[in-house]
Specification:
By secondary structure, the protein is an alpha+beta fold. It has two domains: about 5-145, Roll (Pnp Oxidase, Chain A); about 155-210, Hypothetical membrane protein ta0354_69_121 (Methane Monooxygenase Hydroxylase, Chain G, domain 1, Up-down Bundle). It has helices at about 75-80, 90-100, 155-170, 180-195, 200-210, and strands spanning about 1-5, 10-15, 25-35, 40-50, 55, 60, 65-70, 85-90, 105, 115-130, 135-145. The strands form two sheets. The chain has a six-stranded antiparallel beta barrel. A two-stranded antiparallel sheet has the order 5-6. β10 and β11 (about 135-145) form a beta hairpin. Residues about 1-10 and about 55-60 have low confidence and may be disordered.
């Protein structure tokens, strides 16, 4: 799927070398990386914030890391270019498209739905294999950032269910995961979206079904989480 091009809009610039938001636990984002076709590939990326650690200068946050699973476009582009644009968005359609389909931007790296973005350099710090799938852990260093929108925070059960559904859908057919359990999880997420989701979240859960093996479709072309 191809997304429409977007140009960063005016907004408050973040401090160079700093994240524009406080990160704790795992934060779900979308990352765009420049491919060899000169298009920006968008994929879901979970940011892992470690606990604070002591160093000789006092307390210092641990680096932000992210893990790629399989030989994805994101992994290959990280190796090829060494950087990407991490974006914070709560748009359910953009998130599903990034997580479960081939989603590319033609000219610009920034999604129209992004509330903030961070250009990061990436460094591979660990790798391995789990249940037959190769994984690689990356340390992300912010180079520059910009806040594009100021929003009143809200909690959406529908959006949370969409995120959980993309995770379950990406694991269907993967060794080490039980498909029956994953399908039950997907049905539960769908029921939450039907009860508590917005129109876009209901459309997003339908895209999860269309992009994945939820109904037995081949999902081999999907970008892995």
């Amino acid at each position: 799927m191809t997304g429409g091009p977007s140009t960063p809009v005016d907004g408050a610039s973040g401090e160079d070398g700093a994240w524009p938001v406080a990160l704790e636990g795992v934060t779900e984002t979308v990352v765009t990386t420049l491919g060899p076709n000169d298009r920006w590939n968008a994929a879901a990326l979970g940011l892992f914030a470690g606990d604070d650690g002591d160093d000789e200068d006092g307390r210092k946050p641990n680096p932000i890391t992210a893990t790629t699973w399989g030989n994805t476009r994101t992994r290959r582009n990280f190796h090829r270019t060494g950087e990407g644009y991490v974006q914070f968005t709560v748009d359910p359609l953009d998130f599903v498209d990034a997580a479960l389909s081939i989603f590319e931007l033609d000219e610009h790296a920034i999604l129209e739905s992004a509330a903030a973005w961070v250009r990061v350099s990436v460094e591979s710090v660990d790798s391995g294999t789990e249940n037959g799938t190769e994984w690689e852990r990356w340390e992300l260093t912010p180079l520059e950032s910009r806040v594009l929108e100021r929003r009143v925070p809200t909690i959406s059960r529908g959006f949370g269910a969409v995120v959980d559904a993309t995770v379950a859908a990406s694991r269907l057919g993967v060794a080490g995961y039980d498909d029956e359990t994953l399908l039950e999880r997907l049905e539960y997420c769908e029921s939450v979206v039907e009860r508590a989701g917005s129109r876009r979240e209901r459309e997003a859960i339908e895209r999860v079904r269309a992009y994945s093996a939820w109904d037995g479709q081949d999902s081999s072309e999907n970008e892995s989480l």
